[in-house]
Amino acid sequence: MLHPLKEMMERRKVGITCGIPSYCSANEFVIEAALERARDTGRPTLIEATANQVNQFGGYSGMKPQDFMDFVSEIAGRTGTDRELFILGGDHLGPLTWSDESEKEAMGKAEELVREYILAGFTKIHLDTSMKLGDDPKEGPLSTETIAKRGVRLYQVCMEAFE
């Protein structure tokens, strides 16, 4: 069976317009409603968390990636929603939360962040390395090369954790 996002991409390749609802929330009632919709329609839904909400230090929600997976799974069980009907996503994962720190420190934390998301079972990962870090030049935009190098670094960590 194809992952729902891969299935959607295959459908689009043959001209079928399709999409998936996405909810970026750690609110129990929002997640419950999203899961009930998935259960009632039989179509998967995407539930996302940002690095500020959920990270290896607990984020502002107090949850680490595995805690968030457990939280959503508990709500799914309570609502009778099959596990196959929800996808967990990490939104804007990267060094943003630690942007006042040096590249070495912020990217080290970002690497652990994406690793924990993957190991917890998140399968939709949105990497974002577009922000300046503490030791980046203050003047001018961040170079495309720097953004790309940081993105590749996080992508490699994701792939290693996924294997």
The CATH architecture category equals: Alpha-Beta Barrel
Q: Flag low-confidence runs.
A: none
The CATH class turns out to be Alpha Beta
* Helix-strand category: alpha/beta
Determine Rg (CA atoms, Å).
17 Å
Helix content: 40-55%
Structure in words:
There is one protein chain. The protein is an alpha/beta fold and 163 residues long. It has one domain: TIM Barrel (Alpha-Beta Barrel), CATH 3.20.20. Helices cover 46% and strands 13% of the residues. The protein contains five helices and four strands; from the N terminus they run H-E-H-E-H-E-H-E-H. It has a four-stranded parallel sheet with strand order 1-2-3-4. Helix 2 crosses helix 3 and helix 4 runs parallel beside helix 5. The longest helix has 19 residues. The protein is globular, with a radius of gyration of 17 Å. The protein starts with a helix and ends with a helix. The mean pLDDT is 95.
